[in-house]
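hiii so um. not sure if this is the right channel but i have a protein structure encoded as tokens and i wanna go backwards to a sequence. like what aa goes where. can anyone help
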């Protein structure tokens, strides 16, 4: 008999085992504790006291033993301290991806969509007659010689323009992305945690690129007083420091990384509260946290112009709402001919996802 069978909904029965339910919570807590397993487990104990999600059959101790047995947790035999493993780090990235972007299937070839031919590494099997503006590299000499023999004969061989055949290559859609994350002290000021959503987005974006667009590249740059790169595996441990905001150092490092990439399409995503307060002149730092210092701002604007000349668009995700900061971001964006999103923390992931995905459907010359 064809039909639907309805049963009583039980929110506690979602198809997951008790371990899987607790693993989801543990993974979420690791993001907030910067990868500190002991602190995350301590928080789980406190939450269990309030919400009683463990049972007499399965407690926190059982969960810890299963974490170690399944390779999520390592215990130091010398002092008994707990440390997460590479498997946990990947689990955190996957959870961030599922939370922000939804579940995505892995693609072995990449899934960039374009309907335009252009310079690339995928040769199109079809040829067409030569047109003004075509380059020598595009000429299919085998087909062109064959046409010359047919049109003029073997004994009086010559090749003319109408003999030439062009073989196009499909548009090369690989993209190199640098994700810049502001880790200055202002990212946790006034009781607002801005760094955790930024970390989640960074982990989700890196997991998205590694699974759905494996031919793409992503570099993570963090910037405070200075700028440096971190590995994707280090993202769960990322913390805000007692730093000013040296946006110039971050942009210079991002540009240097992209210069080394062979992909024709390059872009910078920058997550910041929008207020540059520091530059380095010689060996000394020039700092000013009060308002917008024109000396610092001009250095940022100049780099935005340089990126425009290098055809590197900058997309700024602004997570502060001060009007004077928005004015700076607009000036910065106009100079680069890039884009800016004034995103609330809960919408940050959706903004970045939509912008990254839309970039896959356009041609960048």
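sure thing!! here u go:
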């Amino acid at each position: 008999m064809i039909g639907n069978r309805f049963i009583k909904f039980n929110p506690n029965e979602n198809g997951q085992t008790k371990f899987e339910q607790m693993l989801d919570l543990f993974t979420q807590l690791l993001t907030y504790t910067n990868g500190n397993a002991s602190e995350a487990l301590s928080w789980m104990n406190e939450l269990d006291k309030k919400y009683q999600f463990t049972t007499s059959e399965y407690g926190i101790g059982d969960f810890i033993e299963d974490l170690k047995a399944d390779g999520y947790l390592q215990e130091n035999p010398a002092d008994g301290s707990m440390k997460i493993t590479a498997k946990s780090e990947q689990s955190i990235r996957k959870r961030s991806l599922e939370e922000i972007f939804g579940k995505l299937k892995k693609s072995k070839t990449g899934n960039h969509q374009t309907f335009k031919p252009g310079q690339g590494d995928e040769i199109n099997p079809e040829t067409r007659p030569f047109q003004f503006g075509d380059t020598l590299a595009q000429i299919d000499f085998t087909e062109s010689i064959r046409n010359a023999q047919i049109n003029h004969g073997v004994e009086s061989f010559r090749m003319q323009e109408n003999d030439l055949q062009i073989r196009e290559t499909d548009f090369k859609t690989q993209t190199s992305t640098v994700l810049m994350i502001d880790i200055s002290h202002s990212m946790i000021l006034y009781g607002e945690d801005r760094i955790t959503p930024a970390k989640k987005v960074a982990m989700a974006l890196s997991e998205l690129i590694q699974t759905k667009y494996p031919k793409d590249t992503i570099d993570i740059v963090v910037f405070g007083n200075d700028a440096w790169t971190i590995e994707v595996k280090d993202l769960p441990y990322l913390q805000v420091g007692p730093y000013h905001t040296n946006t110039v150092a971050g942009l210079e490092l991002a540009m240097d990384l992209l210069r080394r990439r062979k992909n024709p399409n390059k872009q910078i995503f920058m997550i910041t509260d929008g207020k540059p307060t520091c530059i380095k002149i010689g060996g000394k730092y020039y700092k000013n946290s009060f308002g917008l210092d024109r000396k610092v701002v001009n250095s940022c604007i100049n780099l935005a112009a340089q990126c425009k000349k290098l055809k590197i668009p900058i997309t700024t995700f602004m997570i502060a709402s001060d009007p004077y900061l928005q004015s700076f971001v607009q000036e910065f964006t106009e100079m680069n001919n890039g884009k800016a999103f004034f995103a609330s923390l809960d919408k940050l992931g959706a903004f970045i996802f939509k912008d990254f995905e839309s970039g896959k459907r356009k041609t960048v010359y």
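oh and Residues 18-84 form one domain.
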